[in-house]
Write a structure and sequence with these properties.
The chain is an all-beta fold and about 325 residues long. Helices cover about 0% and strands about 65% of the residues. It is built from no helices and 25 strands. The strands form seven sheets. Strands 4-5-6-7 form a four-stranded antiparallel β-sheet, with no helix packed on it. Strands 8-9-10-11 form a four-stranded antiparallel β-sheet, with no helix packed on it. Strands 12-13-14-15 form a four-stranded antiparallel β-sheet, with no helix packed on it. The termini are far apart.
Length: about 325
């Protein structure tokens, strides 16, 4: 992908982007397929990204490039239909785009009120492989919440909402566009709970830890969580590890097919959490159930090293994830 600029049209004689373009080679028809979007007289492009087979762009209104991004668009080459397909928002000044995350034919962005600067909504974009088009959705926050952060990857979109009255009340939201059902599938943790969402990761699944205050008032990762969208069942499936007094989650890691973490034990009221065991979870798409496998070592044991390795062998349709750890 590339941009096409107009020299001298911006502030101080700078170049402004008036067109964005991309090209892919179609091996079935043995030809390059090019696509270009041109701005109108009062528009410029102020953001451009190319990734995962899609072209993502942002537009601002004004001729010199000084305005903030106000609309966003996506263009994807449909290999089945041998055509470029695109779609874009029509906010027209209702919002300002203040954060963009791109990953594998999906895109998430944060929307702010142009007057107050409050992050009041999220935008979602995805490729509809069934219909052959780009779908876009905007989801406003509740009056008592603001958008804290967004993330995109592996067809999944995630965003964290924060309570305006209590910054320690965070809520995780997830979205997946199910092309088979032609609908967005949304899921969220309960709102209004005093907890923090930490270590948010997307790698095939979505993983995160829930932080709460321990007996000393220190914020600690208390549980490990995994969410999987099961397309066969058309629903999100959730796992959350058991919480216990004076226990913690340490070094949470996620890779396709497995999540692992150390289980920390508090040795004294004012002491640190020491890793004594390991927790691991996988998801069985046949049964629709999670398989949770914690170790049960003697409390004199200490877990020194923990690593998660994923091996994929496409020619054999084989995929294996396994954990490696050392004990002291």
């Amino acid at each position: 992908g590339w941009t096409i600029g107009q020299e001298g049209a911006g502030i101080g004689g700078s170049t402004v982007v008036k067109s964005v373009a991309g090209a892919v080679y179609d091996y079935e028809v043995h030809a390059w397929k090019r696509y270009q979007i041109n701005s109108k007289s009062n528009e410029v492009f102020v953001g451009f990204q190319w990734g995962g087979g899609a072209m993502f762009f942002q537009k601002a209104y004004g001729n010199d490039g000084s305005a903030a991004p106000a609309d966003i668009g996506i263009a994807v080459y449909d290999e089945a239909r041998h055509l470029w397909k695109s779609n874009q928002t029509t906010y027209r000044g209702r919002y300002r785009i203040t954060g963009v995350e791109v990953g594998d034919l999906v895109m998430a962005w944060t929307l702010s009120d142009p007057v107050t600067g409050k992050q009041v909504a999220v935008g979602l974009g995805a490729w509809d492989s069934s219909a052959g088009g780009v779908v876009i959705r905007t989801i406003p926050t509740a009056e008592s919440q603001v958008v804290d952060r967004v993330m995109a990857g592996n067809g999944v979109l995630a965003w964290v909402l924060r309570d305006t009255a209590n910054a320690n009340r965070e809520q995780l939201n997830l979205a997946f566009y199910d092309a088979g059902q032609r609908t967005w599938k949304l899921w969220a943790t309960p709102s209004g709970m005093t907890q923090r969402i930490a270590n948010l990761q997307i790698d095939g699944w979505v993983g995160w830890t829930v932080q709460k205050q321990d007996s000393n008032g220190t914020w600690v990762d208390k549980s490990a969580c995994v969410a999987v969208y099961d397309p066969g069942r058309g629903q999100w499936k959730l796992f959350q590890s058991p919480e216990a007094t004076d226990r913690s989650v340490i070094n949470f890691a996620l890779a396709q097919g497995m999540a692992i973490w150390k289980i920390g034990y508090k040795q004294s009221p004012s002491g640190p959490y020491i890793a004594r065991n390991v927790g691991a979870v996988s998801y069985n798409y046949l049964t629709g159930e999670f398989n949770y496998r914690p170790t049960n070592y003697d409390l004199a044991t200490q877990v020194e090293y923990l690593s998660l390795i994923h091996i994929s062998e496409p020619t054999r349709l084989l995929s294996i994830s396994y954990a490696v750890f050392c004990l002291k």
